[in-house]
Amino acid sequence: MKITDRLVADHKSFRKLMADLDVLVDAKTDPPPSRLIRLVELLKDHIFLHAWAEDVFYYPLIRAKLPSDERVVTTVYMDHLDHEHKTVDGALDRLEADVKDPASRRFWRQSYALFASGLNAHMKKEENELFPFSERLLGAQGLEAASQELERRRKEAPAIRLHHQESTDKPHE
Ligand SMILES: [Fe+2]
Ligand SMILES: [Fe+2]
């Protein structure tokens, strides 16, 4: 499997969690805080691992091989994507703080909208521009090797924390 296939699969899982949150956004009544908190924490953990894979493996691989005559995916472009990572992380921290604090929970729809638009735009750029570019640059084989390397070093990944439990949840391992 190519590393980009893994990353696209992660993006799908973010979209699925965001679809669940979109349902809560559209609901007429306020959602139970425990459900809201759990979805946001799941999103945060998924994104955390994804960011690790991109920041530690995938982006450096591309940066190391950027052709000097490339016009779209340049170091400036990569810096821009890195900056988007920070912006999305910041928006997600804000969202998490809002859903966890009863005093600011009423703002969660706005903080979620800000986060979601940032993440969606970022994922689109990666899927439409960066991922295809990286396949031209490194070849399918290069992307597969990166995926294997990631698998080998998975133990170094930041640990997933225990999620906020809903009463109906099965206990986590
Ligand atoms: Fe990214
Ligand atoms: Fe990504």
Description:
The longest helix has 45 residues, at 108-152. The chain is 74% helix and 0% strand. Mean pLDDT is 91; it is low at 164-173. The protein has helices spanning 3-26, 33-65, 75-100, 108-152. By secondary structure, it is an all-alpha fold. It is built from 4 helices and no strands. It is elongated and about 50 Å long. Helix 1 (3-26) packs antiparallel against helix 2, helix 1 runs antiparallel to helix 4 and helix 2 packs antiparallel against helix 3. The structure holds fe (ii) ion (2 copies). Residues 54, 85, 122, 126 line the site of one fe (ii) ion. The site of one fe (ii) ion has 4 residues, from helix 4.
Number of helices: 4
How many strands? 0
Bound molecules: fe (ii) ion
The portion of residues forming beta strands comes to under 5%
How does the helix and strand content classify structurally? mainly alpha
Q: Which ranges are low-confidence, i.e. pLDDT below 50, for 5 or more consecutive residues? A: 164-173
N- and C-termini, Cα separation: 27 Å
Helical amount: over 70%
The major β-sheet equals: none
